[in-house]
Specification:
Structural class: alpha/beta
Strand content: 15-25%
CATH class of the largest domain: Alpha Beta
Number of helices: 18
Length: 612
Amino acid sequence: MCGIIAYLGEKPAYPILMKGLYRLEYRGYDSAGIAILNKELTVIKTRGKVSELEHFINGKNLHGTIGIAHTRWATHGEPNDVNAHPHYSQSKNLAIIHNGIIENYGTLRKELIHRGYEFRSNTDTETLIHLIEDIQIKEGVELVEAVRIALNQVIGAYAIVIISKNDPDMLIAARKSSPLVVGIGEGEFFLASDATPLIEHTKDVVYLEDEELAIIRRGHELKIKTIKNKEKTPYIQKMELNLSALEKGGYEHFMLKEIFEQPRSIKDSMRGRLNVKKGTVKLGGITEYEQKLVNARRVIMVACGTSWHAALVGEYIFEDLARIPVEVEYASEFRYRHPILNEDDVVIAISQSGETADTMAAIELARDKGATIIGICNVVGSSIARATDAGSYTHAGPEIGVASTKAFTAQITILLLMALTIAEKKGTISRLRYQEILTELEQIPEKVTETLKVNDQVKFIANLYKDSRNALYLGRGYNFPVALEGALKLKEISYIHAEGYPAAEMKHGPIALIDEEMPVIFIATNKGTYEKVLINIEEVKTRKAKIIAIVTEHDERVAELADHVIEIPETEEMLVPLLATIPLQLLSYHIATMRGCNVDQPRNLAKSVTVE
């Protein structure tokens, strides 16, 4: 959600900034802009894609070795040329790019208008740059000090970079509740909202903490201070990211590539943690807090979107294996409903990006109540990774497609490893059963590879139903969250209305929607409530709906009822979601591409939701 890239060095800034904007496209955006300083501070911005900005710039003089650029996802003010970033100050001596929301911008804006400031846009961001310039003039202070004072007056979230016409050798950056990373090269600096635009330039990075300012000067070392004016020593880390992970690798879309990466991403999430020969599971990131988990009165999982669906699978796993009561909460609701939390509760926060604003707010609430907080995320150095007491990275690798695929299966893998660790220490699982699950889990990457062979069959089915207006996804037990996730994927990228339900709940309302035009997708594998699901399929068939069923290989009973069956390998019931979700991801992908949708950048969606 919104993207920042900035550069100061000896090289031409424009190519670096433009390449960075393309790298950031996956985050979701509706306008883009760039500012280059070369005697004059030139700002060019437009509604639409980065390619449109590049076309608009073509032929214009944008020489210079310092600049800032941005992709905007509209919050305040509709997506148009004027509201796009960067934004000038009143004098046009300053320009700013900003991710996040300034919550008290309305009050500040009224005061600035009263002082004679004119606003060109409807954004909260323009309010901030006017405030900074007002303080600089009124207080007679240097720009860095004006920024620091201004940030003490704003309420909300921000990642900002400021460039000044009067100081062509300096960039000022700051963050609070929105990610910002500084890349350090040979005589050059980079700033970005995540590491993806930096990988081809440097491996040395500094992740800014909340309420920190970075002062970047040509020919000087990076300087960091807090908005309370306390100097900090930059902590330089080596970035663990490969350029090849950011390329499509011969696939038509990132989403398809990431679906097919799941054998590896699941295996990477287990690597060094699962040892079948020794019969052990070791999650190094939570070792010091294992006893907290063992003794937990209950576990509360907080997440949003696809991560929430992974948490639902985790709820079944934790309660089955570890016999700990689990509650799964939407982070956005949890933070506002005055939840009852105690010191013997464990909160598990799950997020692909590690930057989800609602999940971060839930973490802060849990910390205030004294609960232990465990994080599961995919991005090293992310806000959630730093805010939690302990946690585990999924090691799924960069996920560029906005609709999450490999992160979902990686999160379930980590939750399973975590539950097995607790169950073994609590003694709620026999040694034989423990070893059986470990053995089967080790085989899952190979079984995912086998499942991916249904791609051509799924593509054929997708062609039959690409023009559907609605779809219903049904499952029971472990397959209920899979139904929810399948429906979410379809509506996210194809814009077809879809709903997921527990199969038995169909009779309590959704059955009224079923007719001859409605495709109904059942996850009907041969474990748990299989016999009950067969009855549900019969109920749908009598209403003449089109039935697509995900079944265990060699199933014959569902095949007699369904219009289409897609087989997946036999596995443990709790591992079925890792396989059953694959055909549903492929179905959504192929339907969306056949409808001409942009599967990697669906409309109105952002990869990392860093605002409420």
